[in-house]
Amino acid sequence: MRPPEHWHLRRRRARRPWWALAAVALLVLGAVLVLRFRPGGEGAHPPATVSSGCTAGAECAQGGGPSYAGTVAPPRITGRAAAVIEAPCGAPLYALDEHLRLAPASLTKIATALVAYERAGLSETVDVRVNSGLLHASTASTVMGLEPGMRMSLEDLLYGLLLVSGNDAAIAIADHVAGNTSAFVAMMNALAQTLGLRDTHFANPHGLDEAGHYSSAHDMAVLGRALLAQPDLAAIVATEHYQPAWDGPEVWNGNELLDRYPGTVGVKIGYTEKAGQTIVAAAERDGRTVIVSVLSAWDRYADATALLDWAFANTPPACDDVASPAS
Fold this sequence. Notes:
Blueprint: H1 7-14, H2 18-37, E1 67-68, E2 81-87, E3 91-96, H3 108-119, E4 125-127, H4 132-139, E5 151-153, H5 154-162, H6 167-178, H7 181-194, H8 217-228, H9 231-237, E6 241-242, E7 251-252, H10 257-260, E8 264-272, E9 276-285, E10 288-297, H11 300-314
Antiparallel strand pairs: 1-3, 2-3, 2-10, 4-5, 6-7, 8-9, 9-10
Helix pairs in contact: 3-5, 3-6, 3-7, 3-8, 5-6, 6-7
């Protein structure tokens, strides 16, 4: 019997080598990934549109969507949430899910520094009880290098807190100011309430991941502005390296934006596995100071740089005729 027409073509297709099929599958997969993660794809933030912001919900879990001032849309970023404000009035320039509650990591230490500065003197002597070696071994966290029995000034500990991001410095400061970390954390939460931070609750003074420890891009930008309003603290976060009064080495600022972005004046970076990369950055240009906060990013420096560039280039000064917002 005569084979059906095109029988030989079907046999040829049936014998296509396995590696050819695998190559086609890889090409298709690559195309899907490119479409997903290219700018404007599902893996990037959409172009910003005006939004009224977060107004309800116990957790305000979805944030408020993107909103911005000016006519040129801000750049897409890797961060999950962001806020851009202008000092000294705190006027908003850009917001992306700015009320979304996320882990802030070591941005927490901005609040720690503010509470310590408010309640103790820089020259006070702190009797250190924390063992940085044990702390690092148990939490794999960054430490300044403190040991029990050391006597350090509060000022030196603030440098270790804000430059090195020492969790041991955070604990030593908390113990000195409040007697223990729990009482100090209560002071931190009182500060958040005073500043009107509705989406912030602290559970520790250092920022390690913990249940009930969260903040938002908006709230962290406000905290950064509050820190910069204190000249002593502003000088610390703008310092690249510092020698404490001890036998140890200099401490160096981990915020690489000080070297990368002209005009940078601080303030703090953070990272944990849950939080991802976080940053509050501030820069001065043409008489303006712009503060950027980005949470849950995988390239915080690129995000901060892009948002600062956009704000300086595409938004008019916002504080000339605007009063400082109420807390």
